[in-house]
Amino acid sequence: MPQPLSQPLQLDRIHCRYDEHEVVRDVSFTLERGQIACLLGPSGCGKTTTLRAIAGLEPLTGGDIRINGQRASSAGFTLPPEQRGLGMVFQDHALFPHLSVAENVGFALRRVSAAERQRRVDECLAMVRLQGMGGRYPHELSGGQQQRVALARALAPRPPLILLDEPFASLDLDLRRQLNQELRAILLHEGTTAVIVTHDQEEAFAIATHVGILRAGELMQWDSPYNIYHAPATRFVAEFAGAGAFLRGIVDDDNHVSTAAGRLHSHRPLTRPAGSQVDVLLRPEDVVPAEQGALATRVQHRVFTGPNILYRLEMDNGEQLSCLTGSHVDVDVGALLKVDIAAKHLVLFGN
Ligand SMILES: Nc1ncnc2c1ncn2[C@@H]1O[C@H](COP(=O)(O)OP(=O)(O)OP(=O)(O)O)[C@@H](O)[C@H]1O
């Protein structure tokens, strides 16, 4: 049955293998129009293979992929990439060197009139802030400008779905962050649905409406960036999605857990029975330095990042906490630091 057009992409229990190795297992997710997904996970977990399967570059051994409601891949069937109508920006997706910037951007617009093509090329170049550069050739551009042209080229035909594989990975951090923010703004403005592969958790959180965390070919969690960080479904997701520490505890009642850092309160009711032994996830911003803080800790390690300092703290019983402060709270390794625990809701795992 055709799916509604509001779902540009639907993966239903897809599997991919290279020879004997199944590298994507039972992965399902759906994107509505305008949603931006980031696939995130450790090296070799199957991010690029999943993206290539969506592009039609890898066959499926099970499940199916629908694009705009039409079957695009299933076991034994792969609609060729050029018939999927997708935009793609891959790290190694070079521009055509012998074509000007404008010709590159207009490449997929051969079927429209010259006037309309010119209008859309100008519009796309403005979108990626390369107005007036249409006459240049790729070798006359910086790496960041070349990737902007690749993005403009992919967006020019207004594809329903665009796939990006670490599009700015070769650029330095500042430029990458800036381009990622521009990318998000452009995708939201154009209403383009996107799937982006990245290694970088901060990058994923900053761009995505939805994040998929993969581990060894399996999708561990598909959720908003907020929930991936604050309501991780598994310990793996909790650890992969950001810094933090786990404290041993015992559930007291629906809203309290006793730990060596005190009796912690959760605004959201806890789902485990009283008496359960648990590990409580505390993110670095849940641990707040205070002169009259209830908990005395000792600084074990500190990382200065400019605006912030990330501390690793040790409690009297040897358990550790992470603590993120503004860089004005500047304490040496070995010094005492008093803190309060300010977690609003508690995330618990069985231990
Ligand atoms: N062409 C291939 N032939 C055989 N095995 C492959 C091939 N391409 C990838 N693999 C293997 O499939 C698994 C998934 O690879 P994939 O490139 O999808 O991972 P990834 O999550 O994108 O990794 P990275 O973040 O390092 O790019 C890895 O174990 C990889 O070694």
TrEMBL record:
Keyword Ribonucleoprotein: no
Every ABC transporter domain range: 9-241
Keyword Transport: yes
Keywords: ATP-binding, Cell membrane, Ion transport, Iron, Iron transport, Membrane, Nucleotide-binding, Transport
A single cellular component GO annotation: ATP-binding cassette (ABC) transporter complex
GO molecular function: ABC-type ferric iron transporter activity; ATP binding; ATP hydrolysis activity
GO BP of this protein: quaternary ammonium group transport
Protein name as catalogued: ABC transporter ATP-binding protein
Protein species of origin: Isoalcanivorax pacificus W11-5
